[in-house]
Fold:
Amino acid sequence: MHTPTISNQTDCTRTAPTLRYDGAGPLVGIPSRNDIVAEFDNGMTAILQQSLSGKQPIHFMPTEVSDDIEGYSSYILRITSSLINGQKAVGYHTEKKAYIRVRTWNHFDRYNALKAVRGVGIHTASDDLNCQYYYRKVAREERLPLSSWAVLSNYLYEFTPDGTYLFRLSVDNYNPISEDDYNNPLFSSALTRDRTLILTWDIETYSSRKIGEVPNAKYDEDKVFMICMIVHWKDDPEPLKQICLVDVETAPEPGWITIVCGSQIDLLKAFALCWKLLAPDIHIGFNDSQYDWRFIVEKANKLGVLEWMFNHMSFKPSSLEKIIKWEYRYNMIKVNDGKFHSKHL
Structure:
């Protein structure tokens, strides 16, 4: 069983050979999330496989929720999670309900439109004026657990080429777990310390303009030359894997996987491929919304690889135009008497 007392998950005394990436082909030498699960098996993989083979209920820890409506004349609820052994899973609510979508220019027009259709007795799919996303309304009305363990039953599933379990089921078969599950000695420890995978990261940049300013992605002379990542389970600070991407010759460090990339573009692409392989549930960075993501996204866009990176990092591919319009936004957040500005992907 996996407990937070396990140490030395990454051998800090062993120095791995330096790897190289030239921007072509797969990224060799980086473990996938499934590789990590297999290496640090908590005894739950066999239980999961037995449950899947017998179509028995399985445990599902939600980590991300979204509405999937583009290209469909129906509503689909998409929930991403980790399973009891730490593998990645995506679930879909499969009962499609047809609707007519009406878009308004602003909240004022939306309020007046809802008031008008209510006045003539038309049934609306989403009339929650305080929610930005429909899934919050669905979760509230259907009593769906979105931040605690759920149990999936009567599902269809497949194991996708990228190593993710894909489940399809009715919303009626997505339910909270019972107290009996928490008391079951077979997997109680896996439920109390779920294997949500955390990725922490940081970038290093420099500028050859030599004017004393923080490097800015819009200038060709300003570059990102290093990206470091560490992954660990949510309840265990011990690193599972430590990865360092650089674009200059670098001696490997004990306990780290070092990858020397041929150029800044290769480094950005290697970052996207690492993200795809590791498939983290949560990512954390120091000042990453203010600087790191902004630099990575804007530099990748300037170098023409943003769409490629996004489509390798995301479960839902998109076009460059839509990525810039919908996935990368500028927000102002009021904090006390000041304003906090944040750009993020």
Remarks:
- Confidence is low (pLDDT under 50) at residues 1-10.
